Amino acid sequence: MKNMLMMGAAAGALVFLAAPSFAQTAPQTAPDTSGQAAPEETATEVVVTGFRKSLSDARRIKRDATIQKDVIVAEDMAKFPELNLAESMQRLPGVQITREAGEGRRISLRGLGPDFARVQLNGMEVLGNVDSAQDSRGQRSRDRSFDFNIFASELFSKVEVEKTFQASQNEGGMGGTVGLFTGKPFDYGVGSKGAVSFKLGTNEYTKDTQPRIAALYSHNWDNKFGVAFSVAYSKRETTEQGHNTYNYSHLGATTLDEDGNPQGDAYDLVDAGLDISNLSAEKQARFMAGDLYFADGNRLSSWNAKQERLGLTGAVQWRPTENVLLTLDMLHGEFTTHRNEVHLATRPIEGFGSTTLDTAAGSPYPAQYQSGTVLNDFTVDKDGYVTMTDASNVTFGSENRRSLNENRFDQIALTGKWDVSDRLFIDGHIGYEKSTYETPYDDKLYMRAKGDLVANYGANGQSASFDYSGWDTTDPDNYVMDNFYYRAFHNASELKEGVLNARYNLSDIWTLRAGVAYHKFSQDGIDLFYDGNVNGTAAKTRGTSVADITSVYTNEFGSWLIGDYDKAFKKYNEYHRLEPNKDGSGGALQDIENVYDTSEETVSWYAQADWDSELMGKRFRGNLGLRGYSTDTRSTGWIQGDNYAYLGTTDVKGSYSGVLPSMNTVLELTPDVLVRFAATQNLNRPGIGSMAAKGSASQGKENCTINADGSNDCDISASRGNPNLKPYKDNTLDLSVEYYFGKVGLLSIGVYQKDVTNFIGSETYSVEDGNALTFAEAGVPSATVPGATENTIINEFSMPVNIAGHTKLSGVELVAQSQFSFLPAPFDNFGVTANYSYVDAPSITGISKNSYNATLYYETKTWGGRVSLSHRDKWFSGYNDSVMSASTRGFEASTYVDAAAFYNVNDKLQITLNGINLTNQKDTQFWGQNEYLYNQNQSGATYMVGLSYKF
Predict the structure, then answer these.
(1) CA-to-CA distance for 394 and 372, rounded, in angstroms?
(2) Which of 204, 270, 417, 578 is spaced 20 to 30 Å from 721 by Cα?
(3) Could you read off the pLDDT of 156-199 as tens digits, one per residue?
(4) What is the CA radius of gyration of the chain?
């Protein structure tokens, strides 16, 4: 059946594309595309001309839709309301975003994180990730979420956020589906139309020149043939500056050995050279008792980047007959980041974690390093967290990390519509896209330093100040060279898709829809690490003078020395490499990780009935449908042992299938009051990281026995990803009441509830628990352990699995927007749009319970402006029941303020002004239930002035 469906979909697409040769001439009827992912605009659409018109058009689309939908429409050609798509969407109810250097990056929808928000581009699903400087914000994460800073907003004419599901939509995106649409030539009317804009900006921290250029040209030959092209280019520098720690280190409690003598971390440190003699007797006793939590990496930091973004779109539309329309869409995107990340942090050589506590180091470090840290004073809170340390002869690390990150995205999609008769309509698309993420180099240049430090995290551990008095942080004599660390990363994703739909108008009331779809996604990756010991740089660089290879770095919080790559490479005869040096130093690259190839192939079908009738004299419309799906998964991945040694490749297959029912209804109590109700079921496919079959295997004992029946005393352990995971599933109920008034006015209240099953966790199978697996059952090659066979028992095996049970979340969304036309002139030109969202999802991370947005605007024919505020409450990225566990992490509440203004010189020329992150909002991350400071930085306000010209 699956093969027949695949062949049918392919054959149908080919027949459809050949349809112009067989098409019957018929009166053209615009198909009803309400609620679908990729509606085609008609040639009679009014061109948008401003923010107020943008709101009006978006409201019209929302009102006419059968499903729950919110929309953002471009104000004009190549003129989206915000400079970033995510920042535009955060103005919609139920949408929350994360930011990177002040710019919107990822979205969460209706109580579910970025992995649950599906993004489509011109009807095709799109997956695209960019890197982050910080692990806590998804550094190099390869998942189903989409980074909206890949594309410039000027490339898009419309964004739709579909919050309820219908059968005619591809399954997936349990939180919702975001549809991105680029401009088409038939959108802009007959003849030639064009627009060009140029903006120039700067940031208060970087003080660079930031150009942003966009242009769009369209020519339409009487709605028979048309072409449209757009280009967007931008370049900017970013910086995030502040205080942070890596994590924490726990100084374990002192215990007694067999002879009654005290033992533990504190005694080991003091015995190795840590000096605590300056502490009071009381604090010496407290330190020696242990059970203390010290901040790791008391660190001054700057994450600096030079970003360059290029986007190109092309669209060709051809109407060979009155009843056939073909559209070819193409998009190319490039996002390149040169990052320099610099830190001055505590980094002991022979000490405790990355804290201020170091002991005596040996050769080749100079004399100053031969004595340990002197701990002069410290304070501790009730839970054992050390909130202040005053120490001398602290060991520091100066890190200069440079990387090149290259993101490339290409998509081509051929879409067609064939009005076979005045009742039968066929549409569909075939498409291909590829997204690559390459890091040719990610290098670290380490230096060491010695000096004094008072690190103070405040009485509650939630702030940070560092005092380096007592030594000159810019004097090369206080530093020595350590080593180089070379890394590189690769990831690529591909998508092939074909969709064929049919619609038949059975009567004035009933319309029947049906369709099939084919979707194949694949992704591969590899990470390469080559550290200073293996690559041989430590042997020739460690402990040497840095007098001739440094420069002074200064940010808002301090100044210190960093290594200069050009000078250091020249001095030590080094270069970025993942192999032995040409001079013979360095060994073979050993640390190769995350090697996998994962594919996901889906065939789906649907049947849906739409109606438009009356109920008790009121207009009543909606749809009822079923969507079936069958998915096959396969993943191959490296199994690795100690020191990342390659032991073998695992190859695991999986599959799942099912049927999803959906119902969406709209009851029009009056022409201006609508009640929507939806009862739907949808799914969300497992995360890529959980599916990838990469893993590890090892044996705890070298001299052991493996018996013929599979039993053994080798203490074998293994783990891998699980391509056989089932998708998340939800049952969603959605109810809303909407009141439309005036030209842009809207008041609405909506409530929803999701009941989610098949959440993913980790399962351990062990001999101890009586559920141990053999190598064959675990899907791990037996060759990974010498002497093992397929029936050898693994003592402890773990992998991701679906967890039984239900998780419920619910939410409320309020929306209000209005033009103040009831006020006397000139105040009647004011308007406001605002929303508030509440989410109750106690066991789900990544979501703020409360969020709200508001925009106040003033607009005349000649000039206008608006200011927008966006707030989200504190949210957790992880949680643990233990008070002091660093698995509990999150972000403090934040409020961002942006502004925009324009002046129309004439009907064609416009001057614009934008301000982004005007309050220089702090981005504060915490760990533990006490919310101790983990990271706090600021990226500065950005200002842009621009010109746009229409022709």
Answers:
(1) 8
(2) 578
(3) 999 999 999 999 999 999 999 999 999 999 999 999 999 999 99
(4) 30
